[in-house]
Amino acid sequence: MTIENVELRHLRVFAAVARTQNFSHAARACGLSQSSVSTILQQLEASLGVQLIDRTTRKVVLSQIGEDFLPGVKRILDDVDRQLQGLEDLRTFQSGQVHLACVPSVAMRLLPRVIERFRQDFPRVGVKLSEVPRGTTMAMVRNGEADFAIANEPGDASDVESTRLMEDVFALVMRRDHPLAARAEVTWAQAQAAGLVMMGAQTGIRLEIRHGLPEGTPDVTALYEAEHPVSLLAMVERGLGVAPLPSLAWPPPENRLLTIRPLTRPRVTRTLHLIQRAGRSLSPGAWHFRRTIITEATREAIELEELPRA
Fold first, then answer.
1. Are strands 126-131 and 186-187 parallel, antiparallel or unpaired?
2. pLDDT at 158 over 50
3. What pTM did the predictor assign?
4. In 26-140, beta strands by DSSP E
C-alpha cells in the first residue's frame, strides 16, 4: 500500500486505538473484530512507512510519531464528521438556507405568506430574501448567488428555466376620500389628470406600464416618484396623488385610508415567472420552497380576484 491508499477507516481505527489504548476496546468502538483492527492499523503504518504504535504485552502505546500524528487525524475526522452531519441536516431539513431574489413589489404581499407557510413544515431552514431591481434578479440566478428569482420576464436564455406563476393586474391606489373613489373603475387618462405618484422611470413597474399602454398612447407622467412601493403608498396616504400598482403591491383591504379601483382603457397586467438556473439541482429545502411558492402564488391569484374594491 502507498499513502494514496489511506482511507478514513484507517484513520478512525488509529484514533480509536489511541483513545482506548486497547485493541479489544478499539474493535468494540469501531464495530470490528480485534484482528481486523490490527490488520487495518498495520496497513496504515505500511502506507505511511512509519510505526505509529509501540506494541507491548501489557498495553498499546503511541510512538512519538503516532503522538505527533494524532492531533491532525482528530482534526480531519472532526471536520469530516461535521461535513457529513451538515449534509444529513440538509437532507432532513434540520438546517440550510434558501436564497430568493425578487423585485420589491413581489416581496410585499406574496413572499411573507410563502415564508410563513414554509416555516410550518421546515422551521429550521432559513430563507434569505433579496429585494433587488428588475435587472439584478436574473443576474443573481445566473451567477449562483440566488437559488431562484421571481421576475416579470420569462428568461428566454438557454441557461435558465422559467415557470409561470401568476398574472398580476394593475389598479389605481387612492385615498378612500378621493373623488375617484366614487367611480367603479378609472381610466388611465382620468388617473393622469388626478396627479400620479409612480415608481421611478427605470423600475420594472414603470416599464410594465409603458409596455402595457397601446402604441401611440401618450406616456403617463408622474408628479412624484419613488423606488419602492411602500414609499408610494405612504405618499398616497398623505394625499399627494394616486398610484398605479400591480396587485401584489396593493394595500390590504383592512387599510382604513386607502382603497383601489380597476384601471381600464387599457387593462394592464404583468406575468410573473419563477426563474432558476438550467441544469442545476436544488437542495431539498430549496426544492420544497420552490413548490411552496408555486402553491401560494396560485392561491394569491385566486384571492386577489375576490378582493373587494370598496
1. unpaired
2. yes
3. 0.68
4. 53-55, 60-62, 97-102, 126-131
